[in-house]
Design a protein that fits this description.
Strands 1, 2, 3, 4, 5, 6, 7 and 8 form an eight-stranded mixed sheet that branches. Helix 3 (136-146) packs antiparallel against helix 4 and helix 4 crosses helix 5. This protein is of the alpha+beta class and 241 residues long. Helices cover 42% and strands 30% of the residues.
């Protein structure tokens, strides 16, 4: 899938001028049960009083590359060690109130383990950061709920498209994983050496049983495309004609 590239405006506060850019890394973090992990922020400052949901992340420090900064931020805010799965893309948005242009680099990350958080004192005192663990539908609903405030609306406008895109990436990865599972089982256990003489019709029957066993709901031809035995079966068919 092509990376996201979104350009957003701040329609909540008037634009006077923008005097600085901020390079930011953020992540949609998920686990093998498709739970998603966010930060809960409770703030009362120039942006107003608000309870928010937001992806974990923060500013890139001098000398850091994006992925190093991302892993540091996720360790600090969530206590998470992660595997970076995909670069989702870049979302450009603005906080007119503080004259800032945000360059948000989003990634999709799978949790490997959780440990101790390392929050800054400002994150504890000013934002009261905590971890939110939600399924996909709960996360969408929480963004919509928190969009009742001005800052919440800006965050939702930036992050809901990213969350929805991340869900598609996760679903695509799961689909590919299931195809590989069928192929591996076929090679290792289900297709004995005698299937070197199988016809494509027999092959389809075998793979169809495999799909049912593995609870795969893909089109048969799409699955068969990834099974190397099929080409040989087609050759057997042609010799029998």
């Amino acid at each position: 899938m092509k990376e996201l590239n979104l350009q957003l405006k701040d329609n909540e506060w008037p634009l006077e001028y923008i005097d600085h850019d901020r390079q930011i890394v953020r992540a949609i973090v998920f686990d093998d049960q498709e739970n998603y992990y966010f930060v809960r922020a409770k703030r009362d400052d120039d942006f107003g009083k608000a309870t928010l949901i937001e992806t974990s992340g923060g500013g890139v420090e001098a000398g850091e590359d994006l992925e190093t900064a991302l892993k540091r931020e996720l360790k600090e805010e969530l206590g998470a060690e992660v595997e970076i799965k995909h670069k989702i893309g870049i979302v450009s948005d603005y906080y007119n109130l503080i004259h800032r242009h945000n360059i948000n680099n989003y990634y999709l990350c799978r949790v490997k383990s959780f440990g101790t958080k390392h929050l800054t004192q400002q994150e504890i005192d000013n934002f009261h950061l905590s971890t939110l663990k939600l399924n996909y539908e709960e996360a969408v609903a929480e963004y919509e709920k928190c969009a009742a405030t001005k800052i919440g609306k800006l965050i939702a406008a930036r992050e809901l498209p990213v969350l929805k895109y991340a869900k598609k990436l996760i679903d695509e990865d799961l689909k590919r994983s299931k195809i590989k599972t069928v192929a591996l089982i076929a090679r290792a256990t289900v297709l004995p050496l005698s299937t070197r003489h199988a016809t494509s019709k027999q092959m389809k029957m075998t793979i169809s049983k495999l799909k049912s066993k593995c609870q795969i709901t893909l089109e048969l031809d799409e699955t068969l495309h990834d099974i190397p035995y099929l080409n040989h079966a087609r050759q057997v068919d042609s010799r029998k004609r």
